[in-house]
Amino acid sequence: MQALVMLLATGATYYLGLLAAAAAAVNPGRPNTPGSLPAHRRQKRDWIWNQMHIDEERNDSLPHYVGKIKSSVDPKKTEYQLRGESAGKVFRVDKNTGDVYALERLDREKISEYHLTALVVDKDSKKNLESPSSFTIKVHDVNDNWPVFTHRVFNASVPEMSGIGTSVIQVTAVDADDPTVADHASVVYQLTKGKENFDIRGSGLIVTMNKHLDRETQDKYEVVVKAEDAQGRRGESGTATVFITLQDVNDNFPIFTQNRYTFSVPEDIRVGSPLGSLFVEDPDEPQNRKTKYSFVQGEYRDTFTIDTDPSHNEGIIKPIKPLDYERIRQYSFTIEATDPTIDLRYLGSTSPKNIARVIINVTDVDEPPIFQQPFYHFQLQENQKKPLIGSVLAKDPDAAQRDIRYSIRRTSDKGQFFGITKKGGIYNDKELDREVYPWYNLTVEAKEVDLSGTPTGKESIVQVHIEVMDENDNAPEFAKPYEPKVCENAPQGKLVVQISATDKDITPRDVKFKFSLSTEDSNFTLIDNHDNTANIIVKYGYFDRERAKVHHLPVLISDNGRPSLTGTSTLHVTVCKCNEHGEFTLCEEAAAQVGISIQALVAIFLCILTFTVITLLIILRRRLRKQARAHGKSVPEIHEQLVTYDEEGGGEMDTTSYDVSVLNSARHGGAKPPRPALDARPSLYAQVQKPPRQAPGAHAPGEMAAMIGVKKDEADHDGGGPPYDTLHIYGYEGAESIAESLSSLGTDSSDSDIDYDFLNDWGPRFKMLAELYGSDPQEELVY
Predict the structure, then answer these.
(1) Cadherin domain: which residues (predicted)?
(2) In what order do the strands lie in the sheet with 167-170?
């Protein structure tokens, strides 16, 4: 038999709890006692035998009775205990009676059920009298929470002018109560603000209630939504704010900001340049502004165009052809502005078009002369001088109608073949040769002048093309150079060469050339083929090379021009030795027989002339040099010398080796020693000049500086010094100096730690230094 049972594990007990709850509702002021049944407000449920139940948030005094556990063991020996995480903290059991109590008010939204273990032990030994039994205490929900929105603020948008019932946004509020209990978690929505334009449906969907929501009138709306419990018992509710923004649609036509636009523009405005802007007002957002500007009734469509600036939605007027103040001084036309992309469903009684009047005043500017033609083409017969080839004409387009003067740019007529009169007549000063230049392209300038002939305004230019017409002024000649050859034993009638002709003049299609020999007393004859070619054949046969190795045949060539011209070209036929097969075996070149050409003679002459001039220049140079030497005016040579020395003298007390009088005289203002002649070479050792010793105790720290300054001044003011560099040695080291020589030229290179062998790689200029300072000098310095 099961010893441990749940006293409340019957459906009847649960119904008793419901009755007790009803009694508590009738007598709300009567508190529950620990032995009384809890007040339940639940519908009938299927009872689970191992569960206890307690309502959350009970208002009666603690502790709250939950249920009872009981064992069939002798109650005098038994003791009841609870085990579990919430045992002793949230729940306790009466160890003698087995009554279970809740020590605190429970919140189902935090913990909906608790799991415990019931024990029956011996009072004395504390040993289990029955096996432990697990059970669950479920917290019954009461409607103690109101709905809470997922967000305090919602943002939504909807196109303006949307129809009634258009969805805007879905809002959601959550009730923390048990959704399995009827109406505990059900939420009811309603609008507390903005209900005149919007409505909310049961699921929290906000929709439009006004189809005339105009963004241009009001673009934002604030809607407040309240969420309540479906039972509405607690009187609490949650609210949220919804900000609804109207999205723009293209539902407005552009309207001109003014009814009349007036512009002033100079007549020389460039075609395609903007001359003015038209402004309209369109309350739609920029992406929905698609204004189109057009002319009404086609006025001046061929003179102006109106482009739309997409960034500013303005109309830009541009001329599409030049304006002329003298022809039209004012343009007046009507334009309209419309939007072809507008949605006509949103239009009411608004006019779909808007018109304005535009007036453009053209102002006068000083314009350059205008030629009557964009270019001129004249023809001129070659080899002729014409007083008038053709005339150009330009006019002043301004009202002043100034006179025009013409000129030809020299850059277009470098040969100065043409001239132009004041009235624009073009003539040629020289005869022209079509075969040299068939076309001449002149640039003619036109300038406005005042009554005195002084240019006053702008200038303009025009191109004049002069075509030189051909005349028959060139005789025909051979089409190419020929080098005919013939065997000395050639038979009669043997073809030597076929010739053809050409003409430098323009050759017409029906040109006919006639060929003939100027003499018939030769061994050749000519046959005209009447197709602008001719054959040269052997007349008698057999040629004597000993008598003539080259035969010269003058050929007369005539054309059929007007007048007909005849030219003479010469064939040089070489007589050659031939073998039995008629192949040439020995020929002398015709050029060798004819002689040297003129070009070769010119080249030879130029070579001889150049050689003669060079020879004369050499002879003249030598003669001038000899004359200069004879008169002692030879150019002095420039020398670079390296002066060496290897002794230091006897120091300051040595007055016998060097003459110090020169230096002393310089210090005391004496006369300077004479300077050697220009051709003189400096001596091996430069004189060392020392100043006289001062008395003991005299202060002379600047003697050396004074001496160097004196020598420097002498060198600066001496204009007759030699044009070569010299090395001066100053051995003076100051009065009472005990220092030895400061020169390093006398030091043996072997005593130095520096390796000077790299001087050998520096070229011949450093050869001497390399030998002096090298590790193994081979010879002494030679002067």
Answers:
(1) 80-149, 150-256, 257-371, 372-478, 478-585
(2) 167-170, 205-208, 198-200
